[in-house]
Amino acid sequence: MNSIKILAIESSCDDTSAAILEDGKILSNCIASQTIHKEYGGVVPEVASRAHQANIVPVVEMALRKANIDKKELSAIAFTRGPGLMGSLLVGVSFAKALALSFDIPMVEVNHIQAHILAHFIDDPHPPFPFLCLTVSGGHTQIVLVNNYLEMKIIGTTIDDAAGEAFDKTGKLLGLDYPAGPIIDKLAKRGNAIFEFTEPSIPNLDFSFSGLKTNILRFLQKNIQQNPQFIKENLSDICASVQERIVSILMNKITKASQQTGINNIAIAGGVSANSGLRMALKEKGDTIGWQVFIPKFEYCTDNAAMIAMTAYYKFLNEDFVGQEITPLARYNF
User: C-alpha distances in angstroms, 220 versus 163, 174, 229?
Assistant: First the structure.
C-alpha cells in the first residue's frame, strides 16, 4: 500500500499555514503571520484575506520543500472549511480546490475547532477516549465530549463572548497591543490577583464573558476617575486579577463537566490553551483530584496546518472526501 501524503492548508483568520503529513506523522508545519493587525487593535478581514493571497503559494512551497515531498506525490489536499473569516477561508478553499483539480486527487474538508482538538494526536502522549476537551480561543469557548477521532459532541458553549475575546478586549481597555492575551499572561506573572471581578452565574455547562467584560470596564472607569494613573500604577495586579477570574470560570465549568460525565481524561485546545495560568491551574487540579491531563505543545495551540493535516488523516482513512462544489463556512458547527 502506498503511503498517505497529505498537504493541509489553514487560513481561517490571519495566519497562513501549510503542513505535510505522511502516514500520520507531521513532516513540516509552516506559518506566515500577519503583524499589520496590531496597528488596528484587531484583525481586519479585508487586510487578512489579501495577505493570505500573497502568502499562500510561498508557504505551501516551503512546506513541501521542508518535507522533501514533490506535489505529484500527494494523496490528498486538506483545508479548513470553517469556522473563520469568510474572505480568509475563501483563499485557502479556492487554492485547495485548484490544486486538487490539477493533480486529480481527493480533497478533505476540516472543521477548525475539531482540528484544535485532534492536535493532541500529533505527538505522544495521546488522550484516551472518551475525553473532555476545553477548547478556548478568541472566537470559541466550548467543552467537547470526544468519543473517537471523528465523533465529538459539544456539551457546553459560550452564550455570548469567548474567553479569548475577553482577554483581548481587556487588553484594549488597558492600552495593550493586539493580541493582548499573551501580554496579559506575561504581566500577570509579575502581579497579584488583588482585585475582585464577577463570575457569572450561568446554568449547565455554558459560559458567558460579556458580563465580566462590562464589570472590568466599569471597574477601570471608576478607579481612573479617582486616580488617572490607576492603570499605570496597578497594571500587573489588574492583569493577574483578570486572568485569575477568566481561568476560574473555565476551570469551574470543566470540573462540573467531569463530575457530570464521570470522565477524568481532560484536555485543552485552542489559542488560549497557551495561557500559563490556565495550564498551571489544569495541572494542579489534575494532581489534586486525579485527572489525567493533556496539554498541547505551544506550537499546536495557535492556528496551524499540522492540526488540519492530522484531522484530515483520520477522515482520509474513513474515505470522507468532498467535491469541487464545496464552499467555505464562516459559521461551522459539528
Answer: 19, 9, 11
Cα 322 to Cα 319: distance, rounded to the nearest angstrom: 10
Task: Tell the residue number behind the cell numbers 464552499, with chain if given.
Answer: 327
Q: Among residues of the chain, what percentage have pLDDT more than 70?
A: 98
Average pLDDT over residues 155-171: 95
Q: Check residue 1 and give its pLDDT.
A: 62
Residue 155, number of CB atoms within 10 A of its CB: 16
Contacts 24+ apart (CB under 8 A), 219-226: 219/195, 220/173, 220/174
125-296 is a CATH 3.30.230.10 domain: no
**Is 142's pLDDT higher than 90?**
yes
Long-range contacts of 46-51 (CB under 8 A, 24+ apart): 46/87, 48/13, 48/14, 48/85, 48/87, 48/88, 49/85, 49/87, 49/88, 49/90, 49/91, 51/14, 51/16
Question: What is the pLDDT at residue 38?
Answer: 72
pLDDT at 277 over 80: yes
Closest CA to 75 of 26, 17, 7: 7
Q: Does this chain's domain 5-117+303-317 share its CATH topology with 125-296?
A: yes
C-alpha cell at 213: 467584560
- Omega cis (within 30) before 58: no
Question: What gap in Å lies between CA 69 and CA 300, rounded to an integer?
Answer: 22
According to CATH, the topology of domain 5-117+303-317 is Nucleotidyltransferase; domain 5 (3.30.420)
- Residue 31, H or E segment: strand 25-32
**Residues in contact with 287: Cβ distance below 8 Å, sequence separation at least 6, in sequence order:** none
Give me the mean pLDDT over the 17-35 stretch: 93
Calpha distance 18→91 (Å, rounded): 13
Contacts of 222 (CB under 8 A, 6+ apart): none
Residue ranges of the domains in the chain?
5-117+303-317, 125-296
4: left (phi over 0), alpha (psi -120 to 50) or beta: beta
Question: Of 272, 311, 247, whose CA–CA distance to 76 is shortest?
Answer: 311
Q: Would you give the DSSP letter of residue 23?
A: T
